[in-house]
Amino acid sequence: MLAIIKKELKNYFLSPIGYVFVGLFMLVSSIFFYIFLFAQQTVQYSILFYYTSELLTFTVALLTMGMFAGERKNGTETLLFTSSRSITGIVIGKFLAALIVIIVTEIVSLLYYAILCIFAGGITDVPQTITVLIGFILLAMSYISFGGFISSLTENPIVAGIITIVLLLASWFLPDLLEIFKLLSPIEMFQSFPNGVISITDTVGLLSQTLLFTLLTITILQRRKNIK
Amino acid sequence: MELGKTTTMNMITGFIESTKGSIEINGYNISKKSKKAKREIGYMPETTPLYNELTPKEFVTYMAELKGISRKVKKEEVQKVLKEVNIEEVQNKLIRNLSRGYKQRVSLAGALIGNPKVLILDEPTVGLDPKQVIQIRNLIKSLGKDHTIILSSHILSEISQICEKVIIINKGNLVAIDTPENLEKTVKEEHSLLVTVEDPEGKINDVVKGINNVQEIKLIKELSDGTKQYSLISKNDTDIRKEIFEVFAKSGITIFELKRSETTLEEAFIDLIDKQKPEKENEKEKIKQEKSKDKPKQEKKENKSSKKQKGGDK
Fold first, then answer.
1. Which one is predicted more confidently, B29 or A40?
2. 3-state class of A34 per DSSP?
3. pLDDT per position as a tens digit, A139-178
4. Which of A2, A192, B116, B246 is deepest in the core (most CB within 10 A)?
5. Which of residues 161-220 of A touch B (CB under 8 A)?
6. Which domain holds residue B131?
7. What is the CATH number for B76?
């Protein structure tokens, strides 16, 4: 699995994908930081993640679209699936590599927290900051597993990326139409974390979604092996 | 079950599951003990898939990690393989900037890492220029000393040069398994000679009639320099070359070339495929005949049932 993680990280940062993701995230975060924190003269770091979580809906596809679709398009999936690594190991390896990129971005964005602490004259809002960081990681896990699943369904990374963005966007709006979708929407589940609340229901919900889509991805890849 | 070469190779390597039967690599079943079985195999796919953003060294190192080679020996193994396929000088260049020949070698290096006992190479010389083809062939030959190599190719001259055993698959059916020499022998017209002569008076047929051991003479082609090429088949095991030479010389027929006719693997392949066709056609006819026998019975049955239905309707 470590080999897959290393290779995927190399892939992210030897190509523009990783830099575009981190750069775009930091750029938009800076704008949000100015508009919602600096201009409002508030030192509540968790507010920033309220908005960057929405940004993640658009940017996560950059990390996941080529996960399996790219390998299939280039024919390199032959190398992966004829190696002695298991499909589960490959899927989890790719998932963890994408998660590491998001965690790195999150760590970089702690810079804003440091700035806020300077303004506040000391370390501020620690519990809320920790909960929002945990919530953001859980949301990212759910999004990555979903994006990876979509990527396993097609051999065109662009198509995978577009479908991922469209369906994640739909998960924003569908709860407005039908109440039941509130229980399925990852962004809805995330809403309690910036308020400093770790909801068991939402945590279990996000983790279940991660597990479900990871298992579905493994099943799809395994099934393709059987019916090629 | 109709399978192609690539599908068969994909099943052997565990890329896809077989629907029937079992595949064992050095005693390990690819479905049940896939991890161990896959370690015994090095696979070079037809399309030579590579990660273009990596260097050959990084690619081979990644393949070593995928194969679970321990850290202690990994560096050494990678360097050994890079040297073996002769890509040391380009090991730090990006794969995307390498020529097709080098890419083929990098792919081969990926297959070789971990010293697998079985190497599976799918069309290893496709798309290479003649010089690169010769280099890769020589490399495969040298690798054959230490590994069992399963090679798939459409280029039969390449196979007869490299392989010790040939399996011919046509439309998913196994046509033959034998050495190239034996396959060539199966279609070789025994005791056949090729003779190119200058015969301005056109008396070769009459002259040949006078030689007891010649069974048949056939004109193969007329050449632009006025000479003609014939095929001569002798009656028994006797070597008629000396007799032909002497008789033709006495009769004023000048021999430009005299040699035993040789069958290539291509000819053997075409002959084997052609032999298979009538068998298949016979099978199809049999099935047709059986169906036509069954048809009147079915029609009768249908008539009966429709009559019954009509009766019921009444």
1. B29
2. helix
3. 999 999 999 999 999 989 999 999 999 999 888 888 787 7
4. B116
5. none
6. 5-185
7. 3.40.50.300
Assess whether B158 and B197 both reside in one domain.
no
Residue B48 belongs to some domain of the structure: yes
User: How many domains would you assign to chain B?
Assistant: 2
Cα A211 to Cα B217: distance, rounded to the nearest angstrom: 78
Q: What is the DSSP letter of A38?
A: I
Does residue B217 contact residue B193 with C-beta atoms inside 8 Å? no
Task: Count how many domains chain A has.
Answer: 1
Structural domain contains residue B210: yes
**CB contact set of A110 (below 8 Å; sequence gap of 6+):** none
Contact with chain A for residue B34, Cβ under 8 A = yes
CA distances from B149 to A81, A144, B63, B117 (A): 20, 41, 19, 9
pLDDT tens digits, one per residue of A169-199: 888 888 787 777 777 888 888 888 888 888 8
* Residue A36 per-residue DSSP state: I
Q: Is the pLDDT of residue A107 over 70?
A: yes
A6, A13, A79: which to substitute to probe chain B, counting the most B Cβ within 10 Å?
A: A79
Q: Which residues pair with B229 in a beta bridge?
A: B196, B221
The tens digit of pLDDT for each residue in B132-145 reads 788 888 888 888 88
Same domain, B244 and B146: no
Q: Which domain holds residue A20?
A: 2-227
pLDDT at site A166: 93
Which residues of chain B are within 8 Å of residue A82 when distances are taken between CB atoms?
13-15, 38, 41, 43
Kindly provide the ipTM of the predicted complex, given to two decimals. 0.84
Determine contact, residues A186/A86, Cβ cutoff 8 Å. no
- What CATH number corresponds to the domain at position B255? 3.30.70.3100
Tell whether B62 and B207 lie within a shared domain: no
